[in-house]
Design brief:
By secondary structure, the protein is α/β, with parallel strands linked by helices. It has one domain: Rossmann fold (3-Layer(aba) Sandwich). The protein contains eleven helices and seven strands. It has a seven-stranded mixed β-sheet. The two termini are about 35 Å apart.
Length: about 240
């Protein structure tokens, strides 16, 4: 989504607003978020989608049986075609503002591809916990910095490819940092990995990778190995303590 912009710059940047009004992330297009939600969240509770952008995930939630869907974002980017699936949209800076909802209000809070963009992700996690009911779920995606390619890149450049100076990713979580901060308030009950379809579609190496992955998919253990190795993003499924 381009270079890093501060909260104030985002609000004043028309190009960003035009992009987000049409934006549908690759993971949403592939069906990864709704598959993850349906795997871990049973029923039809009250849902808050954070950083909702064009609102494409709101439509998918509605079409799969959710009727009590709320959204929050720094500005209103929801497209006209998706607005009808939304019960309510609130505007807030997820890095600094208190979420405009009462305590223990939601059964499920989601944040697809939003946490790595936040200047203060810890405010986001604290507020998500506050507005969740006891035992409620928070599902967020983070960039998977633990893949072999990320490790090799770090050894060579002392940097991560998912956080280069041409994109707007600024928040990353090594395992110990995630444990010391986020897991103080949540129990980690699962991880799911999103593998970009593009890694199976370019050249001979991609064809071999697809062949290997198709075979591995017959075994949960083997599939998990390659998911962790090739997953571009990891969804953390968290239950409020």
């Amino acid at each position: 989504m381009g270079k890093y912009l501060s909260s104030k710059e985002i609000l004043n940047d028309q190009e960003t607003k035009d992009k987000l009004n049409k934006w549908v992330s690759p993971s949403i297009r592939a069906g990864f978020p709704i598959q993850t939600v349906r795997k871990y969240f049973k029923g039809n509770g009250r849902v808050l989608d954070c950083g909702t952008a064009s609102g494409e995930f709101l439509k998918i939630l509605y079409e799969t049986g959710f009727s009590d869907v709320f959204a929050i974002d720094i500005d209103d980017y929801v497209s006209e075609k998706n607005r009808k699936f939304l019960k309510d949209l609130k505007l807030a800076d997820l890095s600094y503002d208190k979420f405009p909802y009462e305590d223990n209000f939601f059964d499920l809070v989601t944040g697809w591809c939003i946490v790595p963009h936040l200047e203060n992700p810890y405010n986001f996690f604290r507020e998500a916990r506050r507005v969740l009911k006891p035992g409620g779920l928070l599902i967020v995606t983070l960039i998977n910095i633990f893949t072999p390619s990320h490790r090799k890149y770090f050894y060579k450049h002392c940097d991560f490819p998912g956080f280069h100076d041409r994109n707007n990713h600024i928040a990353l979580f090594p395992k110990a940092v995630f444990k010391k901060t986020v897991l103080r308030d949540f129990d980690l009950i699962g991880k799911e990995y999103f593998i970009s379809p593009s890694i199976f579609n370019r050249g001979l190496k991609a064809k071999v990778r697809r062949f290997v992955y198709n075979i591995a998919s017959n075994s949960n253990r083997a599939k998990r190995f390659f998911d962790e190795r090739w997953g571009a993003k990891v969804a953390m499924i968290l239950r409020k303590k």
